[in-house]
Design goal:
Blueprint lengths: L11 H8 L5 H5 L16 E5 L5 E7 L2 H17 L5 E7 L2 H14 L6 E5 L17 H4 L8 H6 L1 E2 L2 E2 L2 E2 L5 E6 H6 L10 H14 L7 E3 L5 H10 L16 H16 L2 E3 L8 H8 L5 E5 L3 H7 L7 E4 L11 E2 L4 E5 L6 H13 L1 H11 L12 H4 L5 H5 L4 H7 L4 E2 L7 H18 L4 H15 L1
Parallel strand pairs: 2-3, 2-4, 9-10, 13-15
Antiparallel strand pairs: 1-3, 4-14, 5-6, 7-14, 8-11, 8-12
């Protein structure tokens, strides 16, 4: 069993990557491949400036270099479309923890903050405490609001104000290795419930003589539990009275089911505890598992780390415990903020809203970063969704937009509070290992987690 952490607040920054269901180790191994769910952990800050010297100057921070590359391209587009509102932006890419810590200090002291900054979803509650030092974005986002996924806007809002511009939906789907499944006579399109999924695992075990597992379960991430909570409409974030609830029926059902899969030999524990690490990528490449759930942003992992899988992977809605439950949940994300210290907050807000929420900006997010954008107009624009030359559409056996449109009205988002990173950290460092690695009784392990977290809240 892995050693328990003795405190929660001290590990908020480290735990924030767990909140999004994504590991920062990916960013460590290849900083330029980061997405809005992971971190860029390069040791030195990367600085670039885009735009004419005559433009209004702004500073922008991010923790993913590719984000700043995208924003730079949008500065050029903005300047072409707005000759009377020219801007010049100096972009700085910091390591994940450094950037968020610098931002908190700058806002607390009232000096040194940039005009614009990316804030990872798990860190966002830290910036909405007390006297909020962020500029409300309602007016800037109003031209696009009707077309945006509301749950993504709500994640970065408080008391009726939007404080962060979303990057993607992060809709979760099931990734199926059709080459394996077809070889052993399994039709993934017939899998609708977790019972169906379990039966497919039993069939796969028998047909492959136990050589191939249906899936791997994570001990270093909480995506599976997030899925279960979303399907039952539950949430372990503190309630209105500040009470934490982790002993939830949805969590118990998922962990009991996973424990059974491992015991029955139809699932394995993800190498290094996570499917979103080098060991996880290799496990997929080796054909050891036939499926796993992950957000649509995971598509880039295949292109960057597993190009050999082209033409073998299909995406489909998640199985559910009961018919009628939601088949997706938004996982991960980055909200871009305008700080109260911005020299021209109206201009900064108008630019970043255009860059991330307009049809053109959303098109560029999809084409450059491969994210499932929040502007739903893009989802039905066939010049985008049917573009066979697009690297993501051509890579997979199913069109990601077909799946996205199928679950369009079923994409929920769990509430994230300042306690969420600490809760997730304890679950990952202790509870998941006890249950999945050590086979401990699910009720007992969850009760221990509940007792511990009640003392820490």
């Amino acid at each position: 069993m892995k050693k328990r952490f003795t405190g929660i607040l001290a590990v908020l920054v480290a735990a924030s990557t767990i909140v999004s269901g994504c590991s920062a180790s990916v960013g460590t191994n290849n900083p330029k491949s980061g997405d809005s769910s992971g971190g860029d952990n390069s040791e030195e800050a990367v600085v670039t400036t885009v735009g004419p010297d005559s433009g209004t100057h702004m500073n922008m921070w991010s923790f993913v270099e590719l984000h700043n590359t995208f924003y730079g391209s949008m500065v050029e587009r903005w300047n072409k479309e707005n000759p009377d509102r020219q801007i010049q932006v100096t972009f700085t890419t910091y390591p994940f923890g450094d950037m968020h810590n610098k931002m908190i200090m700058a806002l607390q002291t009232g000096q040194g903050a940039p005009d614009l900054c990316d804030v990872e979803i798990g860190q966002f509650p830290n910036f909405l405490q007390g006297d909020i030092q962020l500029y409300p974005l309602n007016e800037a986002m109003r031209p696009y609001e009707a077309d945006l996924v509301q749950s993504r806007l709500n994640v970065y809002s408080k008391d009726g104000n939007y404080y962060g511009v979303p990057t993607h939906v992060g809709a979760s789907v099931m990734y199926y290795n059709t080459e394996i499944l077809e070889k052993y006579g399994i039709d993934y399109t017939q899998i609708k419930t977790w019972d169906d999924y379990t039966k497919a695992g039993e069939k796969l075990k028998e047909a492959s003589d136990g050589k191939v597992k249906l899936t791997s379960v994570d001990t270093g991430g909480i995506d599976w539990l997030t899925i279960a909570m979303a399907q039952y409409g539950e949430d372990w974030a503190p309630d209105k009275d500040g009470n934490v609830h982790v002993k939830l029926e949805s969590v118990k059902k998922m962990l009991t089911m996973q424990q059974g899969w491992i015991s029955d030999g139809i699932a394995m524990i993800s190498p290094a505890g996570h499917v979103d690490l080098e060991e996880g990528f290799q496990n997929i490449l080796d054909g050891n598992i036939a499926s796993f759930p992950k957000a649509l942003w995971y598509m880039s992992r295949f292109l960057n780390y597993m190009p050999e899988m082209k033409g073998k992977i299909a995406m489909a809605p998640l199985p559910v415990f009961e018919e009628g439950q939601n088949r997706s949940v938004g996982i991960g994300g980055t909200g871009t903020v305008v700080t109260a210290q911005a020299s021209n907050p109206v201009l900064a807000a108008d630019f970043i809203s255009y860059a991330k929420c307009s049809e053109e900006g959303s098109r560029q997010i999809w084409e450059q970063l491969g994210f499932d954008v929040c502007n739903t107009k893009i989802w039905s624009d066939e010049s985008i969704t049917k573009d066979a030359s697009n690297q993501y559409i051509s890579f997979f056996k199913t069109n990601p937009f077909d799946v996205l449109n199928e679950v369009k009205d079923e994409i929920t988002t769990l509430h994230i509070s300042k306690m969420t990173p600490g809760i997730n950290d304890y679950i990952c460092t202790t509870t998941l290992n006890e249950i999945l690695e050590d086979g401990r009784d699910v009720d007992e392990a969850l009760q221990d987690a509940q007792d511990y977290l009640e003392l820490e809240q």
